[in-house]
Amino acid sequence: MKDNVLIDTSVWIDFFRNKESSLRNQVIQLLRIRKAYYTGIIALELYRGARSKREIFILDKLFLSIDRISQRGETYKKAGLMGFELAKKGLTVSTVDLLIAQLALENNLTLFTLDQHFRSIANHYPLRVF
After folding, report:
1. What is d(CA 124, CA 130) in angstroms, rounded to the nearest whole number?
2. What range defines the domain where residue 50 resides?
3. What is the mean pLDDT of residues 35-61?
4. Which of 6, 21, 75, 100 could serve as 109's disulfide partner, Cβ 3.0–4.6 Å?
5. How many domains are there within the chain?
């Protein structure tokens, strides 16, 4: 993949929990070619879901090796307005997922996710989903 990629929590969970996952090689390749990114909210979700100190250690090492994107001044407002517009169209999206989608948009990143609702967002916004 030529694009820089924001790897969503759902993909990281599959990567760590399922050693036979077909996604595993894709994630490894993105890490090798330095195209993988994460956000603070994704780190929060992964740390929150850790099952052991060993998993926390692995996450610490991971986040030292890849680039983190940060929110800008208007990020939260734009994410909130996205949620407002989507709700008017009958779509309910969690606050966390609105923030992740907005961060991907702002940073021109493709979102690598297993969550189907991001595809619904992409039907209304120029969010690239892989």
Report:
1. 16
2. 5-123
3. 96
4. 6
5. 1
